[in-house]
Target: Monomeric sarcosine oxidase
Amino acid sequence: MYDLCVIGAGLIGSAAARHASLQHNTRVCLIGPEEPQERSLGSSREIFGAHYDEGRITRCSDPDPVWATLAQRSIDRYRELEATSGVTFYTEAGCLMAGTVQGQFMSLTRDTVTSHSIQHVFIDSELLKKRFPYLSMSNTDEAIYETTRAGYISPRALIYAQKFVAMNNQCDVINEVVCKVSRDHVDGKSYMSVLTEEGRTIKAQRVLLATGSYTTFKDLLCTGTEPEVTLCPLTVAKVEVSEEDAKRVKQMPSILYYGHGAPDWPTKYPRNASNLIGVYVLPPIKYPDGKYYIKLGNFADSVSPRLTTPAEVKAWYCGDGISSLVTDSARLITAMTPGIKAKSFHGDQCVILETPTGRPYIDLVHPGLCVAIGGNGYAAKSSDEIGRIAAMLVLRGVWDSDIPAEVFKLRLKPRHKTKSNI
Model:
């Protein structure tokens, strides 16, 4: 019998498994399917992950001080994890938090970098154009520039590093899909039973659910309830650029932008209710196909209806996203980086699990069952600390963080009996 079974082998689950495996005399297993070779509606595959990519922005600065703290703790362990695993996943390219002067996004971010002593440089609109001549920004924009402890990570490589260290510490990795979790009692003692689609039964003293968007589609809590969450589909555009252009802007940082945009940006690009453009941009990254891509994603509050069924989630992952948004995003990339020629572009999709609080759920359902879900689109960079807190909570029953546990409290609602299960 395992001391802990972690279900969900994504960013949070793999981090939790590593931290749990580092505890003395603790038997751990990590269960979850590997990334599929292809995404197809005709395949039997039903489980997909948001980490199937080579680029996620990482930075300490954030309008939300909670996310800033989680990021700081995680980023501080990146280099140690790289050294221990032998896997390189972090590129310290810096991060530019930019937007309209004195807008809410910039004001809150400025407050956080000050309160959290985050090393940064404040850049006004004039200096912004001089410092980053390859970017087209508005005269009404300003920026906070993190030169260190920021840039981007490869989520694929980060998961590989977490798993590598966990397995070196005798964690068993099981590449299967869980279909049921139950709490059993024998001779006055309770334990958890985990059943996989392949028919394997795994017994553990405790279970940690890091099952992301699929948590609501399976009755994994065994309580007749489900987490109060929303599934948000996200479309991104990847614009192929030449190796020459990629080298020319090799100093380009990751960018988060929230503002009115520059005059030469596409006028019909989607805006939120406050008439603001919200996007994130990653610098040119070399992908497994040998090509360089600049990636742009739209913040989730301005586009796309939410998903409610497993069939909708699968169709989204296996589809083409919103083609018009992909085209508009590709045009925006070329407008933001004038002088860089787009060789081609295509879209990609993932699903974000949103919580009402905008923070992750890290909480005990009961002493034998814990959840660590709800990345809200921000968890990749902070996944190591989220996984660590969850692992310590479920193993020891103690809250090992100076962020109050109440911040991450799980909210439940009655489970929809008519919801289609996977």
